[in-house]
Amino acid sequence: VLISKKGIMIDSETSKRVLFGEDEDELLAGLPNKNADIFGPIDSIRNLKLDVLFPSVHGNLGEDGTLAGLFRLMNIPYVGSGLRAHAISFDKVITKELMTVNGIRNTKYIVIFQNDKNKPDWDSVSKQLGEVVFVKAANQGSSVGVSRVTNAEEYENALRDSFQY
């Protein structure tokens, strides 16, 4: 299940279409309007006699620490990092800054915020980072909002795409 940017739960088939670039608004308009009991599944987890939970998730609400926090609040033992580790590592900027401060080698990077008035142009970026760069939304799963960039047009499109997340 994917939670859309508008907070709507989308089934796995539709979510794949969103992740592969189809227009989210058009896809959502075509879906039947169904109400769901979002607390039912949580209550049913409480009633299970679990030794330990093995979450297998990808993206927001899974990798960002939300599930770890929920499991902790529910006193459910689970495998994986804790809430803080999830939240910190999900934010690529904080992760890179922590690595740099602690002397851990990592790739060169530039942070560009959507509201920056003086965003670096492609020539400046390619001089600092090389002829091939990857533009990535800072707070998304590993494969969401990633673009391989080799020229100014791709760079502008990649920024526009990553700022959607």
From TrEMBL:
Domain ATP-grasp: 96-154
Cofactor (UniProt): Mg(2+); Mn(2+)
Cellular component terms (Gene Ontology): cytosol
SUPFAM superfamilies, alphabetized: Glutathione synthetase ATP-binding domain-like (SSF56059), PreATP-grasp domain (SSF52440)
Coiled-coil residue spans: none
PANTHER family for this protein: D-ALANINE--D-ALANINE LIGASE, D-ALANINE--D-ALANINE LIGASE A
Protein name as catalogued: Ddl
Organism field: Oenococcus oeni
Gene that this polypeptide is encoded by: ddl
